[in-house]
Each structure stands twice: as C-alpha cells, then as structure tokens.
Design brief:
Number of helices: 2
Oligomer: single chain
Largest sheet: none
Order of helices and strands: HH
Structural class: mainly alpha
Shape: elongated
C-alpha cells in the first residue's frame, strides 16, 4: 500500500495541470534539499512528491481509460 504524506490534504480535487505544477515545485525543492545534505528534508519532500505523482497517475488513468495497457496492467 502506498502511503500519502500526512500533511497533504485531498489531492483528487486538483486538476492535472495543478498536479504537474506541484510536482515541478517539489522537484525544485528536492534538488535544493539534496544540495544542503539534509537527509530528513529530502525524505519529507520525497514523500510529498510520491503523493502528488500517484495522484497525477491516478487522474491520468481515470481521464484516459482506453489506453492500450490499462486492460493488461492493473497496479491499483
């Protein structure tokens, strides 16, 4: 089971574009955190990034149900 970052609210209400923007922002923060060498910050940003990426992938699957692999691969 994939856990969601505890400080992030409901992500299913965000649009694909909003999720993409958040993912881009989190990658910038991840690069900064890695540069500082702060492992705890890197872990927290990684958890948040994973939550947003999962929400984005779920939204893509729901919005595009006829993609060729949806009937073959189910990772939910």
């Amino acid at each position: 089971m994939i856990s969601q970052h505890p400080l992030i609210g409901e992500l299913s209400d965000l649009s694909e574009e909003e999720l993409q923007q958040k993912i881009t922002e989190l990658w910038k923060k991840m690069n900064f955190a890695r540069g500082t060498g702060n492992a705890h910050l890197v872990n927290q940003v990684a958890m948040a990034l994973e939550s947003f990426q999962n929400a984005y992938q779920n939204k893509l699957r729901k919005d595009n149900p006829d993609t060729p692999f949806n009937s073959v691969i189910d990772i939910s």
